[in-house]
Write a structure and sequence with these properties.
binds 2'-deoxycytidine-5'-monophosphate, alpha/beta, 53% helix, Rossmann fold, 208 residues, globular, single chain
Length: 208
Amino acid sequence: MIIAVDGPTASGKGTIAKALATRFGLPHLDTGLLYRAVGRQVAMKGGNPDDAETALAATAFPDSLLEDPALRNEETGGFASRASVHPAVREALFDRQRAFATRPGGAVLDGRDIGTVIAPDATVKLFVTASVEARARRRHAEMRERGIVVTLQEIEKDIARRDVRDMERADSPLKPAPDAYILDTTAFGRDQAIEAAIEVVQEIAAKQ
Ligand code: DC
């Protein structure tokens, strides 16, 4: 069984994908980390992620970079989002993601284009979303826990900006696959969102 979990930034798709992987005993790939590694590689070299050649060269990042804690910060997220608009970057990361998706026992992948491009053949496609306000509140709480001081308004602005870039890029924009189940978690807490996702997967898998 291939489970594709797509959605905008801070929607909770990563948490949901991880929980589904545990529940159904499948390996999990957070594809955003690959784009973040590209963004981080560009930043470390002092390059510009808007330049296609610079971003493409950064796709040859060493695997050890995937363990870098700086991959999680907002600056890297912004660089990743900018680097991810280049078709050559997306193509360079395709094989690695496709190989993971087609593992013999199945897999869970989360990202922006899993149900549309990487695994259009996925058994279950979830598109996890929530309002900008709800996502900003969650991200704000998360950052406060990590001791990062930033206002809710700044986070809201950053999330809205990232949404526009991810949804309006020409190549593989963030959008639900026609056969995706839309899971709006605006009114849900973490556990409720996970429960709802598990139910959807069970229902769809039972019909296969
Ligand atoms: O999910 P995330 O915030 O870790 O992703 C960081 C950026 O990477 C995101 O803004 C867009 C890009 N990305 C993408 O274009 N396609 C994916 N499958 C995953 C992430």
